[in-house]
Amino acid sequence: MMVDSNVFIHFLRKNLDPLSLLQSWIDPSELVTCGMVRMEVERGITGQKLRRRVSAFFDLLRFVPTSNQIWANATEMAWTLDRRGKILPAQDLLIAAHALKFGGSILTADRHFYEIPGMKVFDPAEEFPEWDAD
Questions:
Q1: Is 10 contained in some domain?
Q2: Within-domain flag for 16
Q3: Rounded CA gap, 4 and 33, in Å?
Q4: pLDDT higher than threshold 60 for residue 6
Q5: Domain total for the chain?
Q6: Of 95, 104, 129, 132, whose CB count within 10 A is highest?
Q7: Which residues contact 37 (CB under 8 A, 6 or more apart)?
Q8: CA dihedral defined by 86, 89, 95, 99, rounded to 10 degrees?
């Protein structure tokens, strides 16, 4: 299961602990990540202490390297979806290619992922009562 960056970012903006919430929802050993998700999350963290904690969490996850095959799969998805009139952001396609490498499931609030064939999307608003907490 891949957790999209928007899930981490949403919880952090609401001052909720995404690490605790995710660990209560799924065993961290079942989570995978990729460089794009990690970069999108960590670049927005302003405090060094929190960044170190989030970085350490990412270090525990199974990391899907961005291989030539991942790029080829993302490119193929982009080409195919573009011809169907579905223009998705390149970073979402790259994240999807990583997720598909390990089962094709993703926790995300981003509707783009519903357009990707073979992707099983979990909506955080349905999985976490805290999602809309203020």
A1: yes
A2: yes
A3: 8
A4: yes
A5: 1
A6: 95
A7: 2, 3, 4, 5, 8, 95, 98
A8: -10
**b/e sequence 107-131, b meaning 16+ C-beta within 10 Å:** bbebebbebbeebebbebeeebeeb
Residue 132 lies in a domain: no
User: Taking the CA of residue 12 as centre, how many other CA atoms within 13 Å lie in the half-sphere pointing to its CB?
Assistant: 18
Q: Residue 68: which domain range?
A: 2-126
Q: What is the CATH number of the domain that holds 110?
A: 3.40.50.1010
H or E element in which residue 63 lies: strand 62-63
Name, in order, each residue with C-beta under 8 angstroms of 24's C-beta and a sequence gap of 6 or more: none
Q: Which of 1, 6, 59, 52 is nearest to 35 (CA)?
A: 59
Q: Write down the pLDDT at residue 133.
A: 56
Determine, yes or no, domain membership for 24: yes
Write the pLDDT tens digit of every residue in 43-61: 999 999 999 999 999 999 9
